[in-house]
Amino acid sequence: MAFSKIGIVGAGAIGGYYGALLARAGYDVHFLVRSDLAAVREHGLSVKRPNDEFRLYPVRAHATAEEMGPCDLVVIALKATGNDALNRILPPLLHERTALLTLENGLGSDEFLADRFGAERVIGGLCFICVNRTAPGAIWCMQPGSLSLAEFGRPVGDRLKELAAMFTRAGVKCSVSDDLADVRWKKLVWNVPFNGLSIAAGGITTDRILAQSDLEGEVRALMREIIDAAAKLGHAIPLSFIDRQIDATRPMGPYKPSSLIDFLARKEVEVEAIWGEPLRRAEAAGASMPRLRMLYALLRSLTSTARC
C-alpha cells in the first residue's frame, strides 16, 4: 500500500517532530493543528536536534479534519486523554484503506481504535525518544531514539514494512515487531516510573530522580514489577532491560517527562493509560503490583487536586 497522503493528528512534540521529518523527506504530510495554527501557518515548524536543525515552511496546516480530507495514513499523536475526540476527528480523514498509526503512550489506544474504526486499520507505534515542544511550532529533540512499529492483532506484513521504510528514509531509526503488546510493555518499563515519580516526588526531572539513591531504587522496583507483570501476560522482558533503560536515561540531563509537563500546565494527565490500565491487566493476570497500585492511587489524588 502506498501512503501517498499522510495526516498528522496532534501536531505537538511527537506529531510535529515525525511529521516534519517525513515532510522534509518529500512526503505529502498534512497537519491538523489546534492552538498553534496561526504560528505554524506564519512561521512553519522548526526542529532542533543536537547535531541538526531545520525549518519546515510552508506547512500544510489545517484547522479541521474536513479541511484536511481523506488520507492514506493517519498518525495519531494525541494524548490518550483526548481519545474521545477521535470519534469526531477521524471519520473525515478515512477512506476504505486508510491506516491508523497510534503513537499514544500506555495501554488501551489500540483497542479503542479497533473497536470504533476497524482492527484492520490499526498499527501501534512506540516512540523511544526524548522530545519537547518549546514554543508554538518549535520542537527540541534531545535524543532522537527510535520508533518501533507493530500491527494490531496481525503479524508483520508488507504494509508495516513499507511504513517502516518510509520512516527510515525520513531519518528515523525504525524497527518492526510481531507483538504489539510486547513493545507496549517495554515502553511501560520506562514510562511508569519516570513519568510517575517525576510528579509524585514533587515535580522533578529525570536527572534529579536518578541523583537520589532512594528514588533510583524505587525506579528499579517499579520496573521490576512491570517486567514481572509482562511475564504473567506472556511477554518476556529480560531483567537486564532495567539497567539499559536507566543507562539511557542518565545522559538526558534535566528532562521533563511528558506527564510532568502536562501536570505543571494543569492539563489532564494520562493516569489511566499509563498506570491504571496496566495495573488492572497485571492484577487480572495474577501479578502482585503493590508499588504500582500505590503510585496509581497517589497520582489519581495529585492530578485531580491539581486540576481543581
The level-1 CATH class of the largest domain: Alpha Beta
Number of domains: 2
Please give the share of residues in helix: 40-55%
Return the CATH architecture of the largest domain.
3-Layer(aba) Sandwich
Q: Give the tally of β-strands.
A: 10
Distance between the termini: 47 Å
Mean pLDDT: 96
Shape: globular
In DSSP terms, counting alpha (H) and pi (I) runs of 4 or more, how many helices?
13
Measured by DSSP, the beta-strand proportion falls in 15-25%
Roughly how many Å is the radius of gyration? Answer: 19 Å
Output the structural class: alpha/beta
Strand-and-helix sequence, N→C?
A: EHEHEEEHEHEHEEHEHHHHHHH
How would you characterize the largest beta sheet?
Answer: 10 strands, mixed
CATH superfamily of the largest domain: NAD(P)-binding Rossmann-like Domain
Regions with little confidence, pLDDT below 50 for 5+ residues: none
What does this entry look like structurally?
There is one protein chain. This protein is an alpha/beta fold. The chain has 2 domains: 5-178, 3-Layer(aba) Sandwich (Rossmann fold), CATH 3.40.50; 182-306, N-(1-d-carboxylethyl)-l-norvaline Dehydrogenase, domain 2 (Orthogonal Bundle). Helix content is 46%, strand content 20%. The chain is built from 13 helices and 10 strands. Strands 1, 2, 3, 4, 5, 6, 7, 8, 9 and 10 form a 10-stranded mixed β-sheet that branches. Helix 7 (180-200) packs antiparallel against helix 9 (213-232) and helix 7 (180-200) crosses helix 13 (290-306). It starts with a strand and ends with a helix.
